[in-house]
Specification:
The structure is a single chain. By secondary structure, this protein is α/β, with parallel strands linked by helices. It is 36% helix and 10% strand. The protein contains twelve helices and five strands. It has a five-stranded parallel beta sheet with strand order 2-1-3-4-5. Helix 3 links the parallel strand 3 and strand 4. The structure holds iron/sulfur cluster (2 copies). One iron/sulfur cluster binds next to helix 1 and helix 4.
């Protein structure tokens, strides 16, 4: 069982110091944090935001009680930088599909990156990049992973509050299907034959897409115990080809093992 986080109290009677770090990402998860607005002001009353380049001019120095990390590791420089972030952080929390699974940029993991670079850049020899985009947990120990592309505002506030209080964050491990039932949605797959990854996708969004009669495309990544082969059989009955099954799992969480394995069962 995961350990309870220690209460984040800060040192020498001061408020806990928070840092927000960016690696390979679109900044959307940091914007979700900024979008918390009113609630964020309450959090700011309890915490000292010491480093958050997206939002403020701040100095990078010393240690941090909590580090939020957005983005995946895609360059040798970032592979070094995350080691430094880990050394300086008491608690390290990864936020979003990029940081927890490698993100949409992990599509590179299934192709030849050198070939891409030679097509896109006039001087590919100037490009220093890794062959794969990998989650932060492949490089350093992570204290908590918060999924989503982008993350949910409510969930990031819950995670911050939990770490400050020294308790485990309450983030549901069940699938989007449960959220659909809670929202009173008619199942889009059963009622309309719309392909939907809700049965294998981690809850957290409040079933946004099925609430608007769309199938879920898995932006929160695989839930705790996904049965993707079973879902694929059902999607196949709805008329999806092998090629379509191969592609449906290859989006924001293409490198998450459950989605990666299921995609590979249906194509190269
Ligand atoms: S998880 Fe999605 S929203 Fe967050 S940084 Fe990555 S691409 Fe952007
Ligand atoms: S329903 Fe699926 S794709 Fe839509 S926001 Fe939720 S997790 Fe993402």
């Amino acid at each position: 069982m995961a350990k309870e986080p220690k209460k984040t109290t800060g040192r020498n009677g001061r408020r806990p110091r928070l840092a927000v770090w960016k690696f390979a990402s679109c900044d959307g998860c940091q914007l979700s944090l900024l979008d918390c607005e009113d609630e964020l002001l309450a959090v700011l009353g309890e915490i000292d935001v010491a480093f958050f380049p997206e939002a403020m001019r701040s100095r990078l120095s010393g240690r941090f009680d909590i580090s939020l990390v957005e983005g995946s590791i895609t360059t040798p420089h970032d592979a070094e930088r995350i080691l430094d972030v880990r050394r300086r952080s008491d608690a390290l929390i990864t936020i979003g599909a990029c940081a927890t699974a490698g993100g949409i940029q992990a599509l590179r993991n299934f192709s030849d990156v050198k070939e891409f670079a030679s097509i896109v850049y006039a001087r590919p020899d100037y490009i220093e990049t890794l062959a794969a985009s990998t989650p932060i947990a492949d490089h350093v120990a992570v204290d908590f992973e918060l999924r989503g592309c982008p993350i949910s505002k409510q969930q990031i506030l819950e995670v911050l509050s939990a770490f400050m209080a020294g308790r485990r964050p309450v983030t549901p491990p069940h699938s989007v299907c449960v959220e659909c039932k809670l929202a009173g949605n008619v199942c889009v797959m059963v009622a309309h034959g719309t392909p939907c990854l809700g049965p294998v996708t981690q809850a957290g969004c409040g079933a946004i897409c099925p609430s608007f009669s769309r199938g879920c495309y898995g932006c929160f990544g695989p839930q705790e115990s996904p049965n993707a082969p079973s879902l694929s059989r059902q999607l196949s009955k709805l008329g999806m080809s092998n090629r379509e099954l191969h592609r449906i799992y290859r989006s924001f969480n293409a490198n998450a093992p459950a989605f990666r394995d299921e995609s590979e069962r249906h194509g190269p």
